[in-house]
Each structure stands twice: as structure tokens, then as C-alpha cells.
Design a protein that fits this description.
Number of domains: 1
Order of helices and strands: HHHEHHEEEEE
Largest sheet: 6 strands, mixed
CATH architecture: Roll
Radius of gyration: 20 Å
Number of strands: 6
Helix content: 25-40%
Shape: globular
Length: 164
């Protein structure tokens, strides 16, 4: 009886949110459209197609930054004491790097998670970035998308990056 009582006490003391699914799961109607944005992004990188990447964005001035680790921040602060760890080239720098790549490039996405509430979607995934078939870096990436005029558009991209 004591064991059963202890087990019951443990069970009711666990927060309800620990096992609860997200209430912001993507709707069955929207999932294919959001997944299509992810796939178009992937294919545009492989094709080194900057305009195709740009077409997926709400505009080209969106937040589009790699987050530097503390060592990178400390190094940059030797020249700029206010450096905050956000890259400064944004989407235009990324698009230039993609279109100017001299070797085959690819970004592979894993563990893709999508949450949605009406016109807002959050896409989170692990990624590997490959150059000439070899993983150059990997990390965690977050996108925010907004549905506007019936189309999902990316309005924020933030990622970490670790060498292979």
C-alpha cells in the first residue's frame, strides 16, 4: 500500500506540461505547404539559386543570422567591444555565398519540427551543411514563417554552427 501511495504521489507531482503535446501543432492542411518551403530552400541551395531563395522570404531584410559562440564573440570584441554575436551580412551575404560557391553545396535537415498558430509557423531542425560532399558544419536552425496572401514566407532565420 505504501508503495502504491508513493507511486501515486510521484505521479500527481509531475507537472502536467511534461507529457502534454504542443497545442501549436501544425494543421494537416498547412503542413504540406510549410514542408514545401523547406524543400524549395534545400533545392535552391543545391542549385546555387539566390533568386529562388529570395522568393521564399517575406523580404530580403529579414533577420538572417548565425549566432557566434562565446569564443567567436570574445575574438570579435578585440576590434568591436559591442559585438553581440550576430553575423552582419544577413540574407544578402548568404545568397552571395550560395551563388558564388565553387564546389557543390547542400544543407540537409533532420528532426524537423513545425508548430503553427494561424498565420505564424515556427520550424526548428538540426542541419548539416556540406561542401563538395563533406560536412563543413552543423547546428540547430530556427525559422519563423508568416502566411500572407495565401503563401508561407520566411521572415526570420537564426542558426548555430559547429565545425564537423
Amino acid at each position: 500500500m505504501r508503495v502504491a501511495l508513493a507511486a501515486f504521489a510521484l505521479l500527481v507531482s509531475v507537472p502536467a506540461t511534461a507529457a502534454a503535446p504542443s497545442r501549436w501543432e501544425v494543421s494537416a492542411a498547412e503542413r504540406p505547404a510549410i514542408e514545401a518551403v523547406i524543400e524549395k530552400f534545400r533545392l535552391a541551395i543545391i542549385a546555387k539559386d539566390g533568386p529562388a531563395l529570395s522568393d521564399l522570404l517575406i523580404n530580403s531584410r529579414i533577420v538572417f543570422n548565425q549566432l557566434a559562440d562565446q569564443a567567436g564573440i570574445d575574438e570579435a570584441r578585440k576590434a568591436d567591444r559591442h559585438y553581440d554575436g550576430l553575423g552582419n551580412s544577413g540574407f544578402s551575404g548568404f545568397a552571395r555565398a550560395v551563388t558564388g560557391a565553387k564546389v557543390p553545396i547542400e544543407e540537409r535537415f533532420y528532426n524537423v519540427r513545425i508548430e503553427q498558430d494561424g498565420p505564424l509557423a515556427l520550424v526548428t531542425f538540426d542541419f548539416d551543411y556540406l561542401e563538395d560532399g563533406k560536412v563543413e558544419n552543423r547546428g540547430l536552425e530556427h525559422w519563423m514563417l508568416r502566411k500572407i496572401d495565401g503563401t508561407w514566407k520566411i521572415f526570420s532565420v537564426v542558426w548555430t554552427s559547429r565545425g564537423n
